[in-house]
């Protein structure tokens, strides 16, 4: 491991950071070091301006005309194409809308319908839970279908992939450990067995370069309120590779997925292309905030983003291990750069209390049950100095034992 940098070396890193100008595009409170952009990305001036225009001009003044004049109706596909650049998808394959959970439901049904005669869904026991809950729901509506889990039915996901498997639902970056999977290699393994791959990009879209088309992915879903900074509850997205479009059937066949929504026909006829993944009227105010956020993303070089993300996480790991290792924290994220997302997790027996003490001191990360301190690194608005200062606060909290004060043990509904 290289020698630890000192404060002047940290300042030199910030001065040479090609992404440093992006920070002023965001609205961040004074005195806060925000290491939770992997849960809720920061607000940007652009997103707030879009919200203001959408509410005061388009809704208030232009009213119903805005569906056409302000492009409201086409926003889901237009924004989808802009996310496409960040996740390696050519135009016409991503639509924004609904939630990740709902899009997983649609994608799982679509994949199962593309693989008649196969009835197994494979997923990970360590997955973000909603993926598993939705898979259970899908199984409950399709007699004969079953769910097999990495970590329960076999140690490695590869061991579960055989000719009975219709679809593998897999996280690109694990929400808790931050482990990054090799998308191209696993997708090939899935295809060799004749199955389809659904990639969950919640912790990789906007966190690192993703290459959906090049990897041959079949479907993907992801959030826009995490690294993409779309705002609380911003609509999710779904990707389907063009080669599948004509044969996609998804069960939430609402009017926005109809070929002619305003013909008001009695029967359903699916729209061409990715539009058939839409269901009903979308949250336009949320879409407009997302549009503002994506205006910033249009300017971002994803390779530079990845370089800074790895440098920030390398630095955080090295500083915490050197300064806090003696206080019972142990690294849960891999040191191997190729397998790391843009977050770092440490286990601690009193992770909840330690995180509450950090938040009180202005260092905002989050806690994931049962014992994980989780820190997200968002290169557009996190500096090397932030990392340095955050570790100093963590060291102080652990060394002083202040986290033992009873107020830090009180649990809120959202952790
Ligand atoms: C955050 C997250 C979700 C969230 O799903 P919603 O339906 O938007 O609440 C789903 N999957 C993963 C992997 C996540 O990290």
What does this structure look like?
With 415 residues, the protein is an alpha/beta fold. The chain folds into 2 domains: 7-30 and 301-409, Aspartate Aminotransferase, domain 1 (Alpha-Beta Complex); 49-297, Aspartate Aminotransferase, domain 2. Helices cover 36% and strands 13% of the residues. It has 12 helices and 15 strands. The strands form 4 sheets. Strands 4-10-9-8-7-5-6 form a 7-stranded mixed sheet, with helices on both faces. The model has no long low-confidence stretch (mean pLDDT 97). It binds pyridoxal-5'-phosphate. Pfam families: KYNU_C (PF22580). This is Kynureninase. It is an enzyme of class 3 (hydrolase).
Q: What is the secondary structure topology, with strand pairs?
A:
Elements: H1 7-15, E1 26-27, E2 33-34, E3 43-44, H2 45-62, H3 66-69, H4 75-87, E4 94-96, H5 100-114, E5 120-124, H6 129-141, E6 146-150, E7 165-171, H7 183-192, E8 196-200, H8 212-215, E9 219-222, E10 237-240, H9 284-297, H10 302-324, E11 330-331, E12 343-347, H11 351-360, E13 363-364, E14 366-368, E15 372-376, H12 384-400
Parallel strand pairs: 2-13, 5-6, 5-7, 7-8, 8-9
Antiparallel strand pairs: 1-3, 4-10, 9-10, 11-12, 12-15, 14-15
Helix pairs in contact: 2-9, 4-9, 5-6, 10-12
């Amino acid at each position: 491991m290289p020698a630890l940098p000192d404060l002047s070396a940290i300042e030199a890193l910030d001065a040479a950071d090609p992404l440093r100008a992006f920070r002023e595009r965001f609205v961040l409170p004074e005195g806060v070091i925000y290491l939770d952009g992997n849960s809720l990305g920061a607000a940007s001036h652009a997103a707030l301006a879009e919200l203001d225009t959408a509410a005061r001009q388009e809704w208030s003044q232009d009213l119903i005309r805005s569906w056409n004049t302000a492009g409201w109706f086409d926003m889901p596909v237009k924004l989808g194409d802009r996310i496409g650049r960040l996740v390696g998808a050519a135009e016409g394959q991503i639509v924004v809308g609904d939630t990740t959970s709902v899009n997983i439901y649609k994608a799982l049904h679509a994949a199962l319908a593309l693989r008649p005669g196969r009835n197994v869904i494979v997923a990970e026991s360590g997955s973000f839970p909603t993926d598993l809950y939705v898979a259970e729901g899908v199984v409950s509506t399709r007699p004969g279908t079953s769910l097999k889990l990495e970590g329960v039915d076999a140690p490695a996901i590869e061991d579960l992939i055989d000719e009975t498997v219709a679809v593998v639902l897999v996280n690109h970056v694990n929400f808790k450990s931050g482990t990054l999977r090799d998308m191209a290699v696993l997708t090939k393994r899935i295809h060799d067995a004749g199955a389809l791959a659904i990639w969950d990009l919640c912790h990789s879209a906007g966190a690192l370069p993703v290459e959906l088309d090049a990897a041959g992915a079949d479907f993907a879903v992801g959030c826009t309120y995490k690294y993409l900074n779309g705002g609380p509850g911003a609509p999710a997205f779904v990707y389907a590779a063009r080669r599948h479009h004509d044969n996609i059937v998804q069960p939430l066949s609402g009017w926005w997925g109809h070929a002619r929504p305003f013909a008001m026909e009695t029967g359903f006829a699916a729209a061409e292309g990715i539009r058939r993944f839409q269901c009903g009227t979308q949250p336009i105010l949320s879409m407009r905030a997302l549009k503002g956020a994506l205006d910033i993303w249009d300017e971002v070089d994803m390779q530079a983003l990845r370089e800074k993300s790895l440098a920030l996480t390398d630095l955080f790991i090295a500083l915490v291990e050197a300064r806090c290792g003696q206080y019972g924290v142990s690294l849960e994220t891999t040191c191997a750069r190729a397998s790391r997302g843009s977050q770092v997790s440490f286990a601690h027996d009193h992770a909840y209390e330690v995180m509450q003490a950090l938040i009180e001191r202005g260092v905002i990360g989050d806690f994931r049950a049962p014992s994980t301190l989780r820190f997200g690194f968002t290169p557009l608005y996190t500096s090397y100095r932030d990392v340095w200062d955050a570790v100093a606060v963590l060291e102080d909290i652990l060394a002083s034992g202040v986290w033992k004060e009873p107020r830090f043990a009180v649990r809120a509904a959202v952790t």
